[in-house]
Amino acid sequence: MVQIKGFMYDVSDGMKGGADYIEKMMVRLSGYGYNMLVLYLEHCFQFPSHPAIGTNESLTPADIQRLDEVAAKLGMDLVPLVNIAGHTEGFGFLEAYKHMCADPTGQTRAVGQLLVDSKDSLQLLEELYADIFATFKSKYIHIGADEIYTKYQLLDIPEEQRFAIAADRVIHMIELVKRKGRIPLLWGDMFLKNEETIARIPDEAIICDWAYFSDPQFKGLSNVKSQQTLKNAGKKTVAFPAINHFYGNPVVSVNSTMNITAFYQDHLDVFGDEALGTILCVWGTEAGTFFTTSWPWLYLQGKLFAGEKSQGMDFMREYTRLEWGVDTNGLAEWYDLVDVQVQKVLLFEAITDDGVRNAVQGYNNRPYKLLRLFVRDVFRMENPLPVLNDARKWMTPKVRAELRTIFEKAVHVAERMHSQAQSRQEEPRMLLEWTHLFIHVLNLLDQLEQAGLHYNQAARHQGLDQERYASSLADCVKCLRQMEQTMGALIRWAELSIELEDSADYESWWVREGQGHIRRMADELETGKSGRRGLVNFEVFIRINPSVPFAGRRWKMLAH
């Protein structure tokens, strides 16, 4: 029986981190056999020593005290994770702390890297950790320390020597945690990339070995090598697999299942009686993503903790029977459609279509990433038209038709599960709503394509046939109005995720802006107030701000 049976919840990326939601989560996790919940905080905590950090929605010390009491009753550890080097843009973007990060302008990824040789950044960390020590009761403290990109700092030192200095910062924070009588946890990736530094990690620390099987063509579907390296170095280690929807929904179902089952077994095989355990994680749920899809895989990990075996996707039927009262293979069928079959469509079309092939290859032949990031971008643009238009290079009419057929089948599957559910009806409801959401995104692509055809037809007739010009332009406006209405469906989805999930309130802001932009585009064409003698080409039109006068060669200055 392993000692650590954990789950890590990311409250920093699209989530409120609401105490009520987390309390319910803890109760449910405990029922699945978990004894640890790691809160991945980044900047999303109201630090008493630095009130500028965090948001109004962020967890407070009072929230943590309440949740710690719940954890104690459940026999769980509530563990904080506050990063000490990488993933610190929540500090770097703030005026008061920008000088402590590798890019004080905030214009590059380096804004998320605290300077590892800065006295100011060290003082900041020590003060933030004093708040953490005073608030959290757990004997464990996770200091992060993953993805420290030394290419952004220590530039006067040869690159091969930089991580040794970064390791000094990591070791300092480990020792700080130890002096407070706590057990430090840290990510292992940077030390595994610099194996000569592994020996420097104090033996009391627990290394979290993460790998997610997200690109198996580049990494083997095994963590035996990294686990063996850490064991040979005499280091305490936990396995850290993931439920992969960090590119968006749906969960990458087969990869996530393999990651959880294989990684857990690798850990047991390598460490034997010294195996500490596993912490399953979820990264970010934003831009159309939602958390409740994680629960079947949380259930799967719980089965493994209990010493039970699982074959393939059989756990899904067990899960829906136990949690929904639905004794069918519906959930596995739904994932086969919206995940597996969708990827097959894109991979097959990539054989014969250059646009699809280039797009898929651009994401290292991972079609699930291509598709999910496209949907996320639609949710994250004040002007979604360029994103939609660019996607038409690979979201061809044929691809869209095939995907529509798949998702219409998935709607029927989700409807059956929702109608049959006796409990937790919100879970199959969210699957059904998300399936409809994807169809709405396909509708946006169809509507934009029609708008472009009518726009181009109007441009050809402008000055030659006023009646056909006016008719074509009116048809273009009609298509844009349809897109405006379809964006309303995306807004309703975002509002639903805020209502039923733990999504942050800002999740509906972007799509509202996108809807407003499309409305203004339609208004401009309808009123003809732009003062232009001729219609600009459609590629330019969809990229400009309709509120700004067109300026010929300067259109790029007006685009966004």
Characterise this structure:
It is a single chain. The chain is globular and about 80 Å long. Strands 3-2-1-8 form a four-stranded parallel β-sheet. A four-stranded parallel β-sheet has the order 4-5-6-7. By secondary structure, the protein is α/β, with parallel strands linked by helices. The protein is built from 20 helices and eight strands. It folds into two domains: 4-312, TIM Barrel, CATH 3.20.20.80; 330-558, no CATH class. Helix 15 (397-420) runs antiparallel to helix 16 and helix 16 (426-461) runs antiparallel to helix 17. Residues 553-560 have low confidence and may be disordered. It comes from Paenibacillus hemerocallicola. Belongs to the glycosyl hydrolase 20 family.
Produce the secondary structure layout:
Elements lengths: L3 E7 L8 H13 L4 E5 L20 H14 L2 E5 L7 H4 L26 H17 L4 E3 L16 H21 L3 E5 L1 H5 L12 E5 L13 H9 L3 E5 L12 H19 L5 E6 L12 H11 L8 H10 L6 H23 L1 H9 L4 H12 L6 H7 L5 H24 L5 H36 L4 H35 L8 H19 L10 H4 L13 H4 L2
Parallel strand pairs: 1-2, 1-8, 2-3, 4-5, 5-6, 6-7
Helix pairs in contact: 1-2, 7-8, 8-9, 9-10, 11-12, 11-15, 14-16, 15-16, 16-17, 17-18
